[in-house]
Amino acid sequence: MKLNLLSSLLPRVALPMTALLALFWVTAPQAALAATELIVIAHKDVALDKISPERVTQIFLRQQQNWPDGQPIQPIDLREGTSLRRSFYDQVTGRSPGQLRAYWARQSFTGMGLPPRQVDSDEDVARLVQSTPGAIGYVSRKPSGAGVKVLLTTTVD
Amino acid sequence: MQTRRERRAGRAAAAWALAAGMGLAGLLTGASAHAAGEASESQGSTLRFSGFAALGLAHNDNATAGVTTSFSQLRPVQKGWSANMDTALGLQLEWQPAQGTTLQVQGVARAGEDMKPRLRIAALRQQLGQGLSLNLGRLRSPLFFDSSVAEIGYANLSVRPAPAIYGVVNSVASLDGADLQWRLNLGDASLLAQVFGGRYDYTHRFNNFAPALSADASLRGLLGFSLSAHLQDLTLRVSRTEINRYELRSEQVSQINSGLSQVSGALQQLAMNPMLPPPMLAALQAKSQGLEALRNPFDNRPVYTSIGLDGNWQRWRLLAELTWMNPHNDLVGRGRGYSVTLARSIGDFTPYLSVAQLKRSGATLNTAALGPTGLDPQLDGALNQLQQGFDRAQQFADISSRSLSLGLRWDWRENMALKTQLDLMRTPSSGTPGPLAVPTLPFNNKLQLFSVTLDLVF
Predict the structure, then answer these.
(1) How far apart are CA A124 and CA A129, in angstroms?
(2) Do B155 and A102 count as a contact with CB atoms less than 8 A apart?
(3) Which chain A residues have a beta carbon less than 8 Å from that of B411?
(4) Would the N or C end of chain A have less CB density within 10 A of its end CB?
(5) B218 inside 8 A of chain A by CB
């Protein structure tokens, strides 16, 4: 009797289970494929060779404005709406676009400071970091050339 | 010929049209305008235009009390729907003539003040190197944790900082003077030390009268500091501000002073009677001096202290603040307050719960000098009138209240947030108006305020 009940239920349970497993099978590799590298780069003369995510957060929120040797920090940001920017702020700084907007509204409308300069693409970030003393930015691929140094490499979704 | 009222209505209509136009422009072009501003910056332009707006409606269920966000608000939210609570438009222009030098101008118009534009910032900001920077001119007030952003809805998680503790400091919206800021990094912490000083004038509204009365408030010798520590997921801030002279002048205050002087003069005349026994003479002279001490009863020398935090943990957010106010005035009394907000983000939605309370203590105005002399019925009548006036003033000076707020924020566009919030507010008793606009006592001391706002930055 129990066996009969089990066999009658099995097709009903098996189908959704199979679908769910199929979904996992399909989505898991996609998630892995969607992961990209995020590289924090700085001008070659910057007096640091590596940096923590916490320090990167402070720099892009303009809470730290000078390198250890006193040189002014020039953060170069990507324009709002780019996926790398969203990933950077979400996973490196732990802030959503809304939280970030609210933070900058608080800063700029109270005279406390302005957000970092924004550019359109990875290439623009790399070019500006290379040519601007004290500059720091983030890109998805390490730029060629000796004008920049890599301070942090991480993987983001 | 237009009457003063009609002209005022015309100006208000024009201001509303401007506000509506700007708000609509912000709504329609918010993202693109912001992008344009950034584009110009990235191309090396040194001029930046930006702004913020809040389109808000609030419903008050109480027919006996109005609600305000500050003691400078002209029009409280009375029973029913009103845009006067949160609706505001702010426009800002920044010009960077040289690296490290910025000129900033910001004007704000609030519906609760007939959309009359007010200058909030007109300042020069100069980087001095080594993490030092100097602001000179009109600056936003830094009295409490959220004072500088109280009217910038988008920058606040909730619709507004709790009026229970912010009502008293929101009136001091700006500061004419200077501040010196010093940024320092210690390990993973970023510290910001700020020293500020200056003065400010505004029109203080006594909405507890029908019709409401206005007084010229002047703050002189304002001096304070704040210290903030920013960690990855936590911001801590402590501040203290002392105001050497906080004076309120109005026709009514002049009348009180005049009444006190007249009665004091009459007492001195009585004291000149050589037939009076020495103890009676001394008592009359003491009474006369006591009356003089009651002149300008609202003047004070307040000290505001605040300790606040803003913390994030995964999708949770906690905002908390403790505040102290010591006006060094026995009529107003000391105030101790707190607010706590807990929120959790679920995608673009953030439900939150807030509690806030302000308790007053130490209000022990000595009005013994207003007691009857037993010598002259007319004089005693005048003293009695003054006594009643001071008793009433003491009752209305109690701004104790508490509130419980439940709200939901929806970040539905990158530069816009829709919020809805229900505030349950109450004062200690039906004889204590708290921060509410209550023309007659006793009143219904429980109030529900339901708010819907659209906050945007552009």
Answers:
(1) 8
(2) yes
(3) 96-98
(4) N
(5) no
Query: Smallest Cα–Cα separation from B86: which of B22, B144, B159?
Result: B159
The secondary structure of A27-77 as a DSSP string is HHHHHHHH-EEEEEEEETT-S-S---HHHHHHHHTTS--B-TTSPBPEEEE
| Burial zone of A20 (CB within 10 Å; 0-12 exposed, 13-18 middle, 19+ buried) | exposed
In this structure, chain A runs to a length of 157
Closest-CA distance, A63 to chain B, in angstroms, reads: 6
DSSP string over B75-87 = S-B-BEEESTTT-
What is the identity of the amino acid at B92? Q
Q: Please indicate if any CB of chain B lies within 8 Å of the CB of A97.
A: yes
Determine which helix (DSSP H) or strand (DSSP E) holds B205, and give its type and residue range.
strand B189-206
pLDDT in tens, B201-236: 999 999 888 888 999 999 999 999 999 999 888 999
* Partner A, chain B 248-287, Cβ-Cβ below 8 Å: none
Give the model's pLDDT for residue B425. 98
Question: Peptide bond preceding A72: is omega within 30 degrees of 0, i.e. cis?
Answer: no
Q: Which residues of B touch A93 (CB under 8 A)?
A: 232
Task: Quote the CA–CA distance of A123 and A46 in Å, as a whole number.
Answer: 20
